[in-house]
Amino acid sequence: MKLLHTSDWHLGRAFHRVNMLGAQADFVSHLVTTVREHAVDAVVVSGDVYDRAVPPLAAVELFDNTLHRLADLGVPTVMISGNHDSARRLGVGAGLIDRAGIHLRTEPSACGTPVVIPDAFGDVAFYGLPYLEPALVKAEFGVEKAGHEAVLAAAMERVRADLATRASGTRSVVLAHAFVTGGEASDSERDITVGGVAAVPAGVFGGVDYVALGHLHGSQTITGRVRYSGSPLPYSFSEADHRKSMWLVDLDADGTVGAARVDCPVPRELARIRGALEDLLDDPELVRHEEAWVEATLTDPVRPADPMARLTERFPHTLSLVFDPERSPDDPDVSYARRLAGRSDQEIADDFVAHVRGAGPDDDEQTVLQEAFDAVRADAVVREVTP
């Protein structure tokens, strides 16, 4: 069976101030063309179809158009909800849409109920694991402590239990939206840290033939059977070095997996340039970036006059301007944000406690702080997904 694995469309999202809806429509057309030209047997979309729980109307219209085009191809499509989606909204009409061959899997309770698609060698069972927010699904899966590894492990137990009841030789595909150990993050994914831990080991997904992951925006291979497709378009300058693509997966009769990347159309290249303003304006090596979307980091010790206006004369598509003056590490003017770069909320809170009272939090206090961070995150998720 030939599968096309994609994820993280983020319909409705902009790139800085650039509306990406046209580029997203171009991607959908590319997806449809790829399915037709490569004789794809099934499409899997591993979450974050939309960029937010209540997407703009234009994004909803594009999604509706996409569903119609996929249904017209007569190729089954399996989709799950991601942490940016409202599972309840995305899943509206799922029962009816099933009849058109578009299978929306947004309910955690249905993790062990697959979409079964046959080919010449037998059945392939597709199990959709939508994004599982630990605090919200803890009771559903009967886990004592809310955490990503615990709830995903419980969901996979249901998958393996169902798979054990099926005919010998049934192959299996799992769609999941999670941060798996070994994956490389970018700046454009929303933090899903719970209890100080976001990543789950790839071993959680043992016992199935292919795991189609979503959440991280860079295409990457965790193991030969566990892969991220990445987002089809860039959504932050941290993705400047990404090659945007989908995975074309061949699932053989015995469950052997072969995979090749299919490049996605990118509307404009991304470039990150750094240096003093006059150097950036004069450097002949930067000619190749003059038509790119540019993030410029200025290192001038004193902020120059009208930097954006001057930059856009040479780089008309400059979207982001960052000031990072070159100073010695012990310079008192080094910015607060710079000192916090790369530190977690928990580490920042620990440092604050130590600064205020002269000693950092003990183990019990650290637990209280982390529970407070998790409660705020969970409340934000509830408010976002509740109509």
Overview of this protein structure:
- By secondary structure, the chain is α/β, with parallel strands linked by helices.
- It has helices at residues 21-37, 57-73, 87-90, 94-98, 134-141, 148-164, 277-282, 307-314, 336-340, 345-357, 363-385, and strands at 2-6, 14-15, 18-19, 42-46, 77-80, 102-105, 115-119, 122-129, 171-177, 179-180, 199-200, 210-214, 220-223, 226-228, 245-251, 257-263, 270-275, 293-298, 318-323.
- The radius of gyration is 23 Å and the shape is globular.
- It starts with a strand and ends with a helix.
- The relative contact order is 0.12.
- GO terms for molecular function: exonuclease activity.
- This is Nuclease SbcCD subunit D.
- Belongs to the SbcD family.
- Heterodimer of SbcC and SbcD.
Number of strands: 19
What assembly state would you assign to the polypeptide chains in this entry? single chain
CATH-assigned fold name of the largest domain: Purple Acid Phosphatase, chain A, domain 2
Spatial strand order of the main sheet: 6-5-4-1-15-16
SSE order: EEEHEHEHHEEEHHEEEEEEEEEHEHEHHH
How many H/I helical runs? Answer: 11
The CATH homologous superfamily of the largest domain: Metallo-dependent phosphatases
CATH architecture type of the largest domain: 4-Layer Sandwich
The unreliable regions are none
Q: What does the main sheet amount to?
A: 6 strands, mixed
CA-to-CA gap between the ends?
A: 39 Å
What is the alpha-carbon Rg in Å?
23 Å
The averaged pLDDT comes out at 90
CATH class of the largest domain: Alpha Beta
Pfam families: Metallophos, SbcD_C
Subunit structure: Heterodimer of SbcC and SbcD.
GO molecular function: exonuclease activity
Family: Belongs to the SbcD family.
